[in-house]
Amino acid sequence: MQARVLPFPDLKLRAVYIARFEAKTFKNPRGCWLWEGARRNKEGYGAFWYEGAVEYAHRVSVVLFKPKWRRIGLSPDLVVMHLCNNPQCVRPSHLRPGTQSENMIHRVESWGQTYGGSTKRLLPVVAA
Ligand SMILES: [Zn+2]
Question: Which of 50, 62, 94, 104 has its CA 20 to 30 A from that of 83?
């Protein structure tokens, strides 16, 4: 299911996708867009029907809203990091595609310091 490159949508369809996507989010006062649609798994990642398959909402957000990734598509080799450390968040400016090792570094930097280096409070690995 996650083994394909997420394609960018047809430009006419894009507006439809974005309207449907935004209707499933709640924009909270802290700036996150919390997913209120279906969930894919117990970690709480959102699910969104996109281009013929169910995909993670935070990954779809990248190709819908970020022009660079719209152009080339989002490779399944890349994880999508939550810069806000909120796995429910699907706001494009809070998301950044990166490698698995970049993701680990981000998590250690943002959580390890806060919690004195404890790894117990790390979020689940961001779904690939
Ligand atoms: Zn956020």
Answer: 50
